[in-house]
Design a protein that fits this description.
This protein is an alpha/beta fold. It is 35% helix and 21% strand. The protein has 7 helices and 11 strands.
């Protein structure tokens, strides 16, 4: 399987093409209008994917939920990741990076262990006591604010695939060309208007106004859209 990749040639290799995550979400919503009237569920990936996914779901009147995942941090550099883990414990590793850094399997297991508890905590904070939604036979849209390595989105896609969706669609405003290519082996369609090539890539460089969202800001957004009640 190799995904259909849909980008915007006018935005290829350009920086600062979106005002913010909401602006990017509107762009994607317009691109995804072909799915209106179909049995679709939007999953946003916290934290940065939440405003993107909420805009898509709101504009197209699709049901919305969250899919919790976390990267496994590189020792001494928590902003970078060796791979990622999803809520069901699937771990996808960047084998090339691990080999370059000389990190052992035992070290990876130690790094991954606290992620399990953190995933459960984040699920409770962001989803409350919501039951897992029905996925079988649905078109699933996975939304995030960008693809740097692609590994976190792969963990999300593999978790969703387990529940037999009709189709897995990834909607991200920006992505590294190598990450898009890697992810294409795992999903059916990728909408990524701003694909950028080259050695150096940062999700933030696609946005004129970008910052890391705090847990509190994510919760406020979810409450504003009535996903969380605050009870």
């Amino acid at each position: 399987m190799t995904a259909t990749i849909i980008d915007d040639r006018k935005l290829r290799n350009k920086s600062f093409v979106f005002q913010d995550r909401e602006d990017a979400g509107i762009y994607l919503a317009l691109t995804l209008e072909r799915f209106k009237g179909k049995d679709v569920l939007v999953f946003a990936i916290p934290s940065g994917g939440v405003p993107v996914g909420l805009v898509i779901a709101s504009h197209l009147e699709f049901p919305f939920d969250l899919l919790i995942k976390r990267k496994i941090p590189i020792p001494g550099n928590p902003e970078a990741g060796l791979g990622a883990m999803n809520l069901e414990g699937d771990i996808i590793l960047n084998d090339r990076l691990i080999s370059m850094l000389g990190i052992s399997i035992e070290d990876i297991q130690k790094l991954a262990e606290p992620i399990k508890a953190e995933l459960q905590t984040r699920n409770l904070i962001f989803r409350g006591d919501r039951p897992w939604p029905e996925i079988n036979g649905k078109i699933i849209i996975l939304a995030d604010d960008g693809l740097a390595s692609g590994y976190t989105m792969i963990t999300a896609a593999r978790m969703v695939r387990r529940y037999d969706p009709e189709e897995i669609v990834v909607a991200v405003p920006t992505g590294a060309a190598d990450a898009v290519k890697l992810l294409a082996k795992e999903v059916d369609i990728i909408y990524c208007p701003n694909i950028r090539e080259g050695y150096s890539f940062a999700v933030a460089d696609a946005y004129r106004d970008w910052y890391d969202l705090s847990k509190e800001e994510v919760v406020d957004l979810l409450m504003k859209h009535n996903f969380l009640t605050g009870d």
